[in-house]
Amino acid sequence: MNYTTLGKSGLKVSELCLGTMGFGTEAGWGSEERESFEILDRFAESGGNFLDTANIYKLGTSEKIIGNYFQQESVDRDYFVLATKYSLKDNETNPNASGNNRKNLMRSVEGSLKRLKTDFIDLLYLHIWDDLTPIEEIMRGLDDLVSQGKVNYIAISDTPAWIVAKGNTYAELMGWSKFVALQVEYSLLARTPERDLIPMAKHFGLTLAPWAPLAGGALTGKYLAGDNGRIKEGSKRLNDRSIAITKEVVAIAEELGVSAANVALQWTRQQGIKTIPIVGATKVKQLQENLKVISLILSEENIQRLNAVSQIELGFPGEFFAEEGVKKNNFGGFYERIQK
């Protein structure tokens, strides 16, 4: 596996990130600790070092399993780049047991450190925007954690583009730690981040970390026969548009002699921005199949076919800027010159 730096930092991470939301069997699904250990071993043996979890995953069990894994003498904690998150409600004890506020931030991080049995978190994500806490309060709190040595880098997930931009700009003004990564739902079935989140990430040099890059398994093609698994009836992942996209993914996979999952994953990695998809696994064989993507390159024709079948409306102003009249008549032809 190759390595890349995360955002505008010097932190070296593997080209795939292992999602561990399935570590634990709460809610009736997932992997027991022993199999989770095997998945972590295989990922590390392949060169993978980037792990993703959250304080809320399996009610804290995911973090506990990773913490137990780190306690083994054969495991080098410093080899791994561990990302976790705070924001979502993890208990019923008090009204501040959720949200982006400083109190919950500090409480959540202390809880994560105990479950993970580690002295520091490599990358801490704000998990989801609460539309309540001032971004200034958040950035100051995150920078304090970095200064205390409890967190090395910060990132953000599931938040409007203008909030992320304001946060990074404010941090730059104050000399505080800035976000280095952006986690969003992004796949062939979910391309709306292309409207503003991805252009914003490019501007700030954020690494894109797509969650659900296989759309809950829909893009593997396994649901085409009618077995919907954990996807609820009426889901957008199973409507006519999604089925048409999945069929094209399967067709290209058959032409190339690879899995549909590999095609869908690789598409996210060839979208013109530094991207590290988060690949979840509850079985070793699932991980081994996903790891094959690192040797796959899609042709320009493959990309065009996938883009065409999955294209979305960018809306205003994206589509307005793309109109021929605007490009030709505005700025005295400057647009054409800079494109050349």
UniProtKB/TrEMBL annotation:
Classification via CDD domains: AKR_AKR9A_9B
Protein name in UniProt: Aldo/keto reductase
Keywords from the named record: Oxidoreductase
Pfam families: Aldo_ket_red
Organism of provenance: Arachidicoccus soli
MF terms (GO), sorted A to Z: oxidoreductase activity
GO cellular component, one term: cytosol
Top-level taxonomic group: Bacteria
All copies of domain NADP-dependent oxidoreductase, residue ranges: 15-309
Family annotation (InterPro entries): AKR_Detox_Biosynth (IPR050523), NAD(P)_OxRdtase_dom_sf (IPR036812), NADP_OxRdtase_dom (IPR023210)
